[in-house]
Design brief:
It contains three helices and seven strands. A hairpin with a 2-residue loop joins strand 5 and strand 6.
Length: 138
């Protein structure tokens, strides 16, 4: 697994977004560059949670938002490195649902929010056994 080096501004955006949408889950994308050992996250972008029904336990990204994210990466010479979302009143550990919707290349940053405040940020990526492995955040 690679290390993540997250730009402070991008990290703060993720945490503030998670706090602002509490008690619902937030979702967004992050972009940057990578080498053989490190993913450099330079930008985070909020995306509307398009999940119908209970957004306290689930998030969904509308296909059009995903297409916009891919287009943004191409037009701005950056790489779409993953998805962040929040876990209100739950730890920053992937759920069974998170595993079902995960894609192999992406990093998945989870922001745990307790009582409306960001308390923990962790990142995960699928390994070859199709289970999540934690990535180190520098």
């Amino acid at each position: 697994m690679k290390k993540l080096d997250i730009n402070q501004e991008a990290l703060e955006l993720m945490q503030k977004h998670a706090e602002a949408t509490y008690p619902n889950e937030c979702v967004g994308f992050f972009y940057g560059k990578e080498d053989d050992t490190v993913r450099f996250i330079e930008l985070a972008v909020e995306v509307p949670n398009s999940k119908e029904g209970d957004q306290r336990r689930r998030f969904e990204v509308h296909p059009k938002d995903y297409m916009k994210a891919e287009r943004y990466a191409l037009e701005n010479d950056t790489t779409l490195l993953g998805v962040y979302h929040s876990h209100p009143e739950h730890p920053a550990i992937p759920s069974e649902h998170d595993l079902k919707v995960a894609q192999p290349f992406f990093s998945y940053i989870i922001v745990s929010v307790k009582g409306g405040k960001s308390v923990k940020v962790r990142s995960w990526q699928l390994n070859e056994q199709n289970t999540f492995e934690e990535e180190t955040i520098a």
